[in-house]
Amino acid sequence: MSDTHCDFSVNYKNVTVFNEQGTDDPKYPLLVCVPHAGTYLPDEFLKASLLDKKQLLSNADLFVDELAMPLVNIGIPVISMQIARSFIDVNRDKIELDAKMFYDYPADKIAVENNRCRFGLGLIHRIDAENNPIYGGLISYSEVQQRIKNVYDVYHKRLQYLINKCLKKFGICLLLDYHSMPSKICSIIPDSPKIDFCLGDLFSQSCPTQYTACLQENLKNKGYMATVNVPYSGAFTTFNYCQPRRKIYTLQLEVNRGIYADEKSFEKNNNFQKVSLDVAESVHELAKKMLDF
After folding, report:
1. What is the number of other CB atoms lying within 10 angstroms of the CB of residue 40?
2. What homologous superfamily is domain 18-290 in, according to CATH?
3. Per residue in 254-290, pLDDT tens?
């Protein structure tokens, strides 16, 4: 990365971090979060970036917040991020920062190097979906701390509150972490149909196996190919919020973008409504059975 400094400061006064619906009176012990469907990008960030808005949204979970909306009508609350993950990725740990991105990285900080950071997809993304650099130089660590304070912490504080609210009412909570995956990654199993859905439960560690099996069966009964932990087993949200001893469980749901949208034009296809309703019905059946498990 160039040694040029890429400085900007965002005014967070009128920034809406998340949207939530159906959270006042949930009917089931199931909460849905959508961390990667946000499309809002601060003007200051857009002006400082090398990329245009379409490029910056290339790794967004296209329309997943809208896919989840039928769940609200059946009493399942949904919280969705409004800010795009290319600005800050709330499905990462705070420490997943690439020290080489900053010109003022504190000398006393431990540089955490993991795959997501090395690949440019840590808490602060370095590249877009086509490996194009987002910034024309080194950015400010101090500015990123403001992103964490005004966006990341705000979202996670609210998500934790909603989990605690669900737990208090029902004595149990399942957090369904709703995502989409590129269609090109959905043909990874030789001699197998293309994957439509992937359920990630950290290899049976984040929720009871009957929850995963129930949702998988519900989706299969609607004609979809649903796998478990392949190609994704879960990420930060799945790991961070599961507390089985307290009956707080997590399950990641990944939807093949190609079954509901055109990935090149960023437009919904004719199957969008069907997929949305099929998922809602499948999740609803799980939510009802959770009351009996």
Report:
1. 13
2. Zn-dependent exopeptidases (3.40.630.40)
3. 999 999 999 888 899 999 999 999 999 999 999 999 9
Per DSSP, the three-state class of 78 is strand
Query: Residue 12 has which token pair?
Result: 């967070």
| CA angle (74, 77, 79) in 5-degree steps | 140
Which residues, at least 6 apart from 163, have a Cβ–Cβ distance to it below 8 Å? 31, 173, 175, 241, 248
The DSSP secondary structure of 134-193, one letter per residue, reads SBSSBB-HHHHHHHIIIIIHHHHHHHHHHHHHHHHHHS-EEEEEEEEE-GGGTT-STTSP
Cβ neighbours of residue 89 closer than 8 Å, sequence gap 6 or more: 35, 36, 121, 122, 123, 124, 125
Residue whose entry in the numeric block shows the structure tokens 């796998």: 227
Report residue 105 as tokens: 């990285």
pLDDT tens figures, 14-67: 899 999 999 999 999 999 999 999 999 999 999 999 999 999 999 999 899 999
Q: What is the pTM of this model?
A: 0.95
Q: Residue 98 and residue 271: Cα distance in Å, rounded?
A: 39
Any idea what the Cα angle at residue 128 is, between residues 82 and 37, rounded to 5°?
20
Cα 103 to Cα 32, 36, 50, 74: the distances in Å are 38, 27, 18, 49
Q: How confident is the model at residue 246 (pLDDT cuts 50, 70, 90)?
A: very high
Q: How far apart are CA 64 and CA 82, in angstroms?
A: 12
Report percent pLDDT > 70 for the chain.
96
Kindly state the tokens that stand for 145. Answer: 């701390």
CB of 181 closer than 8 Å to CB of 257: yes
Q: What is the pLDDT of residue 30?
A: 98
Residues 261, 32: Cα–Cα separation, whole Å = 21
* Cα–Cα dist 233/256, whole Å: 15
